[in-house]
């Protein structure tokens, strides 16, 4: 089979390692795809072809000398523009950081580089990764590769669009309220929000803030596992990091749906407003699971406390991170983010304590739920990709959305449980727009979750 930029990342990495294709040749294939698709999609920003070619040449030289190479050796990658890359422009999607160049890598970038990836640029993000539609005043809007008149989601929207269009074979991202999962759903790729502590973050202003995590995206579940094997694992600088090493995710993932105990819910008992087209796809998922031998029950955990917990902790985090910036530059932060920062300023200690108490209760709710089920299945996003000129959906099935967070509740209520969740392509709307299904497993069971996701992927695609 001829290797192309659309081939699985594992196949591309194996081909470089076997010297069937050089890192330089593989890079040129991807640069050609970037030249073809990026002008329309605006997924990759701060592209540096010269530096990428130098990196690919160094990768080839390293291999030629017989040195041991990492699992991503020679794979072109663009890093999310909220992860600091030493010596590379890192804007966070904000005009206030339009010329910012860090002097050190974030830990996740350090690990990706060490694994042998060849960096080509950055992937576009919303301002400070706030909101699930990727646009900013530095680089503009990222468009959906399936339908460029639609949103690619966010905040890892540039990553998902670059991945889905073959500009890169793998992509890193981060997820607070759905920033890995929503764009994966919108662009028809796989995005994993790992268990809390699975992918450590360093440096961090607050090591005890546990709503945002970094994680992998790929075109297949197997490729997501490959990147997770690089990103995951303990670090002595991160006290909450899980001790399990990343290499447990390196072997091929395979599982079965036969006998799987599934709690399946379209709307979490009315907690979610779900577009009828998404609900239709989720119904087909239920039928597929039953047909594959799973035991499917229409059931869900009580996540009613999650809404207040997430919104409180999100506002608390944003105020702590950007409050001083808003005070000094009140006209240089987008209104929706500024409103959230100001909401954080109004919080009391009792409010934050209530949110953490709710997270504790939610942990117990999920622990009890998973004594009866292996996975929870629900929508990734409550809506299909929406028009690119909108900031966010203002209604679902005629039901008004009160804020720019309401339409992504299906993702963020899972966030505050601490459980791993993966979005896997599940089907399309009548217009051909991608829809993902969200699979959730108990905390720490990321490998098991990926096995179930791989089995679902195989059942849906037939191979």
What key phrases describe this protein's structure?
single chain, 463 residues, alpha+beta, Amidase signature (AS) enzymes, 2 domains, 3-stranded mixed sheet, 13 helices, 37% helix
Structure description:
The protein is α+β, with helices and mostly antiparallel strands. The protein folds into two domains: 12-248, Alpha-Beta Complex (Amidase signature (AS) enzymes), CATH 3.90.1300.10; 261-461, Amidase signature (AS) domain (Amidase signature (AS) enzymes, Alpha-Beta Complex), CATH 3.90.1300. The longest helix has 23 residues, at 306-328. The two termini are 16 Å apart. It has 13 helices and 15 strands. The chain has helices at residues 9-17, 23-41, 49-64, 107-114, 157-164, 181-187, 221-231, 276-291, 306-328, 335-345, 349-369, 409-415, 446-461, and strands spanning 44-45, 76-80, 118-123, 135-136, 140-141, 170-175, 190-193, 213-218, 261-264, 295-298, 375-379, 395-396, 399-400, 421-428, 434-440.
């Amino acid at each position: 089979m001829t290797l192309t930029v659309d081939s699985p990342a594992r196949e591309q990495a194996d081909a470089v390692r076997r010297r069937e294709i050089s890192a330089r040749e593989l890079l040129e294939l991807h640069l050609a795809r970037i030249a073809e698709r990026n002008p329309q999609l605006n997924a990759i920003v701060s592209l540096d072809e010269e530096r990428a070619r130098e990196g690919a040449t160094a990768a080839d030289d390293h291999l030629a000398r017989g040195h041991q190479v990492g699992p991503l050796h020679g794979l072109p990658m663009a890093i999310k523009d909220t992860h600091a890359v030493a010596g590379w422009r890192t804007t966070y999607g904000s005009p206030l950081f339009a010329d910012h160049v860090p002097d050190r890598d974030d830990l996740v970038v350090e690990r990706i580089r060490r694994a042998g990836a060849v960096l080509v640029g950055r992937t576009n993000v919303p301002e400070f990764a706030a909101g699930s539609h990727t646009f900013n005043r530095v680089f503009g809007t990222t468009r959906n590769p399936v339908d460029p008149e639609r949103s690619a989601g966010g905040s890892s929207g540039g990553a998902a669009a670059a991945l889905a269009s073959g500009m890169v074979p793998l992509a890193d991202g981060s997820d607070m309220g759905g920033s890995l999962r929503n764009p994966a759903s919108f662009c028809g790729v796989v995005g994993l929000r790992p268990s809390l502590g699975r992918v450590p973050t360093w440096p961090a202003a607050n090591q005890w803030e546990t709503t945002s995590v970094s994680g992998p995206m790929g075109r297949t579940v197997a490729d997501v596992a490959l990147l997770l094997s690089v990103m995951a694992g303990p670090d002595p600088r991160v006290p909450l990091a899980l001790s399990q090493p990343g290499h447990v995710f390196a072997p091929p993932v395979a599982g079965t749906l036969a006998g799987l105990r599934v709690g399946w819910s379209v709307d979490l008992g009315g907690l979610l407003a779900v577009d009828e087209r998404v609900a239709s796809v989720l119904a087909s998922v239920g039928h597929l699971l039953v047909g594959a031998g799973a035991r499917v029950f229409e059931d869900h955990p009580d996540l009613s406390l999650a809404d207040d917990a997430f919104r409180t902790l999100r506002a608390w985090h944003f105020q702590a991170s950007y409050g001083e910036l808003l005070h000094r530059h009140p006209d240089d932060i987008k209104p929706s983010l500024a409103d959230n920062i100001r909401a954080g300023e109004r919080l009391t200690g009792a409010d934050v304590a209530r949110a953490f108490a709710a997270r504790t209760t939610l942990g117990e709710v999920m622990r009890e739920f998973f004594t009866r089920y292996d996975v929870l299945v629900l929508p990734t996003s409550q809506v299909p990709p929406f028009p690119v000129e909108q900031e966010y959906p203002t209604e679902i099935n005629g039901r008004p959305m009160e804020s720019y967070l309401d339409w992504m509740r299906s993702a963020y209520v899972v966030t505050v449980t601490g459980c791993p969740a993966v979005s896997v392509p599940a089907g399309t709307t009548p217009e051909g727009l991608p829809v993902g299904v969200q699979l959730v497993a108990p905390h720490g069971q990321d490998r098991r979750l990926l096995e179930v996701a791989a089995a679902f992927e195989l059942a849906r695609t037939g191979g």
